[in-house]
Design goal:
Blueprint (H helix, E strand, L loop, with lengths): L3 H13 L13 H11 L3 E5 L8 H14 L4 E6 L5 H12 L5 E4 L4 H9 L2
Parallel strand pairs: 1-2, 2-3
Helix pairs in contact: 1-5, 2-3
Length: 121
């Protein structure tokens, strides 16, 4: 995620959930994301989508393809700010409708809802 404070808050919320048992690994680049996803065989990958490379939808879908090639059962979840990026939010929503991702989350949801949603994938 581009915003470190937001990424840290998401990581803390997921790690604090005792029922989910989440272990969170944060990455700082797409390359690191792909390396980590090969090493750890993740249950889910949560990626931000916005208007700035490498966070643009096209790049995130490429990362999704690479992750799914190695781990077809990995859940792919996109996070988008529907208030500041409404057009991108609509594109992400359509990506879910097209079956390319497992879920999308708006940046305005609460941390507890995010944790609950991730636990039910």
């Amino acid at each position: 995620m581009r915003n470190y404070i937001f990424a840290d808050a998401v990581a803390q919320a997921l790690q604090a959930d005792e029922q989910g048992g989440f272990q969170v690994t944060r990455t700082t680049s797409t390359e690191e994301l792909l390396q980590q996803s090969q090493m750890f065989d993740p249950y889910a990958v949560l990626m931000e989508v916005n208007g700035y490379p490498p966070y643009v939808l096209e790049e995130r879908l490429k990362a999704r393809d690479a992750i799914k090639d190695k781990n077809p059962n990995c859940k792919i979840v996109f996070v988008v700010d529907e208030n500041s990026e409404p057009e991108i939010a609509e594109q992400v929503r359509q990506t879910k409708l097209d079956g390319l991702i497992d879920q999308f989350i708006y940046g305005s949801i609460s941390a507890s809802y995010l944790v609950a949603l991730m636990a039910t994938l």
